[in-house]
Amino acid sequence: MVARLERLEFRAAVSRKLKTRFGNLRRLPPDYVGERHMVIAKHLPCRSGQEWVEFEEVPEPDPSSELDEHLNIVFVASNSEVADAEVFEEVR
């Protein structure tokens, strides 16, 4: 009976679809000291069937698990000029 349960649990885990989410990260100022976490600031239009969002770093420890259900692919700018640029156009 235990072996059957283990096989069923394994099948359930394998059959779950991997959900991905892509987005750029707006970081806190470089001089910020303290705990930080990431939240979704804005949902953007899908691109080629992929979910896109704008992530934002915020102060304080993470109070929720909003980001846990997805594999989040986060793009981080390497310099402040790029980080301040508007990358996406808002679609209305």
Describe this structure in words.
The chain has 92 residues and is of the alpha/beta class. It has one domain. Helix content is 21%, strand content 37%. It is built from two helices and four strands. It has helices at 2-15, 80-84, and strands spanning 20-26, 36-47, 50-59, 71-75. A four-stranded mixed beta sheet has the order 2-3-1-4, with no helix packed on it. The radius of gyration is 18 Å and the shape is flat. The protein starts with a helix and ends in an 8-residue tail after the last helix.
Note the main sheet.
Answer: 4 strands, mixed
**Oligomeric form:** single chain
SSE series? HEEEEH
State the shape: flat
What proportion of the residues is helical, as a percent range?
A: 10-25%
Task: Outline the fold blueprint.
Layout: H1 2-15, E1 20-26, E2 36-47, E3 50-59, E4 71-75, H2 80-84
Parallel strand pairs: 1-3, 1-4
Antiparallel strand pairs: 2-3
